[in-house]
Amino acid sequence: MRQKPFLFVTVIFSCLAFLSGLAFAEPPKPAAKAKVAQTPAVPRVLGISVEPKSLSLEGPRAQQPVIVTAALSDTSLRDVTRDKNVTYLVADPKIAAVRSHGVVTPVGDGTTMLIIKYQNFKSQIPVKVKGAKANVPINFTTEVEPLLSKAGCNMGACHGAQYGKGGFKLSLLAYDTDLDYRALIRQSESRRVLRHDPANSLLLKKAVMAVPHGGGLRFDVDSWEYNVIKQWIEQGVQPPTEFDPEAVRLEVIPNERVLKGPGEEQQIIVRAIYNNGKSEDVTQKARFNSSEESVATVTGGVGYSGGQRGGLVRAVGRGETVIMVRYMGAVGVARIYVPYEFPVPKMEKYPTVNFIDELSAKKWAKLRATSNMSRERSKTMNAPAVGTSSKAMRRPNSNADRHTPDGPPTCTACVSRAPQSSRMRPMRVTRSSALAAYPLRSHAMKPDVKSRSVSPMVK
Q1: How far apart are CA 61 and CA 41, in angstroms?
Q2: How far apart are CA 180 and CA 184, in angstroms?
Q3: Residues contacting 202, CB < 8 A, separation 6+
Q4: Closest CA to 330 of 245, 216, 221
Q5: Residue-averaged pLDDT of the chain
Q6: What's residue 25's pLDDT?
Q7: Parallel, antiparallel or unpaired: strands 265-267 and 312-315
């Protein structure tokens, strides 16, 4: 009987504790809504542009590709030259013809218009053709030599080596056209070129692997390269002359482009400007290579092309690369940017000291580099050097403490922060030090009898 009051009190306290827990408990949270994956909006096409703005074809073998660029609503540009929705049409087919991917070739002399349509947009550019039916022989300097260079025949690892390969030597990268012509026509008992039977010429049979060739396959039978060399032999192997034009510079279109990400493509076209004032498209004859193939690759490199047209850039990673273009000793470049997937950083907080920092900030913004870079740079610039007091880190306030343009740094901060070995001291110029500094001009120095030193002669 004595245990019943104790059991009753225990039950009462348990009920009170339960009710108090319900009173102070948090209300149940509503169930979180499942996130619905939102697909990014596809940017709209605002218009198209075509480059070059006009076409001029001179000669029966002239050709000119075009680049069609679409301007999108997100302020980006996209190459749609190879898009299946792009249509090319020549107003007068008796003047010119257009092949796939916008390559225009001559048919007859005159002028016409090239019409390009993409979605609801239309653009047209003038086309002028001259000498479409003229009998112009193939030029050894401007057509055959660039083809051998692009195939890699005159590289240092092949026939352009010091002693050649297999008894056949060419000048390195076609710097001596007369030597190359004699090697092709006269050497090896003239078996490399057969004028009466061009198809059986050793030059062609080796390149297409009809006979064993240590350099491997260079191009295919009936390819563009094959037909150029074969036609050159059929025309009588015209030699180089002193009147052959020389390439002065290359015009690369476009010279800079931003690609959104891996998989996007951009066509590049190249025009050569010669010393006689003429110009022509050399996209098919030029050599292309990418400085960073982990960022973007390009067709038209040295070696077997497999029938691919040169200058097609394809993004495979992210970063920056330079497309190098070479033709007849002239060089051109095109910069390709593939931004990272980070948000656009706020570069106004980037600490700048001179114009180099400003250019770096613009480059980082274009590549969408992370803001961690600017924070790390700020810490590095503001951190005092080891062993440097706060007094030494103050900005110099007198002319005596500032840098002198012609002498060593005299400000306290620079001298204290610079290592002992890097501090500049006045140095007496002796003959041994002068010869080390000017090894190629040692013959142009005269000794100073009084000071036993030497000084360069000023001509």
Answers
A1: 45
A2: 6
A3: 188, 191, 192, 193, 194, 211
A4: 245
A5: 79
A6: 52
A7: antiparallel
Q: Is the pLDDT of residue 456 over 50?
A: no
d(Cα 166, Cα 161) in Å, to the nearest integer? 11
Q: Nearest-CA neighbor of 301 among 290, 291, 292? A: 290
Sign of CA dihedral 383, 385, 389, 390: negative
User: How is domain 247-338 classified at the architecture level of CATH?
Assistant: Sandwich (2.60)
How confident is the model over 79-84, as a mean pLDDT? 93
Q: How far is CA 284 from CA 233, 350, 454, in A?
A: 20, 44, 54
Nearest alpha-carbon partner for 102 in 123, 87, 119 = 87
* Residue spans per domain, the chain: 45-130, 140-234, 247-338, 347-382, 389-440
Whether 81 has a pLDDT exceeding 80, the answer reads yes
Q: How far apart are CA 397 and CA 342, in angstroms?
A: 42
Token pair recorded at residue 139 = 């030029």
Q: Range with the lowest mean pLDDT among 13-22, 220-229, 233-242, 448-457? A: 448-457
What is the reported pLDDT for 60? Answer: 94
And the tokens for 345? 């950083």
Number of residues assigned to the chain = 459
Buried b (16+ CB within 10 A) or exposed e, 370-399: eeeebeeeeeeeeeeeeeeeeebeeeeeee
Task: Give me the sign of the Cα torsion angle 326, 140, 97, 113.
Answer: positive
CA distance 58 to 95: 12
Res 381: pLDDT: 45
Q: Which residue has the tokens 């025309």?
A: 235
pLDDT attached to residue 374: 47
How many Å apart are CA 82 and CA 265, to the nearest integer? 9
Instruction: From residue 434, give the alpha-carbon distance in Å to each of 430, 448, 454, 456.
Output: 6, 12, 7, 9
Residue 396 scores a pLDDT above 80: no
Tokens of 157: 């690892």
The dotted CATH code for 45-130 is 2.60.40.1080
Q: Which two tokens stand for residue 192?
A: 């490399």
Tokens 């273009």 found at: 325
Determine the longest span between alpha carbons in the chain, in angstroms: 134
247-338 matches 45-130 in CATH topology: yes
Q: How far apart (Å, rounded) are the C-alpha atoms in residues 116 and 93?
A: 15
Q: What percent of the chain has pLDDT over 70?
A: 70
Neighbour tally for 248: CB within 10 Å: 15
Do you find a cis peptide bond into 198, omega within 30 degrees of 0?
A: no
Q: What is the pLDDT of residue 276?
A: 92
For residue 57, what are its two tokens? 């074809």
Residue 169 CA to residue 416 CA, distance in Å, equals 60
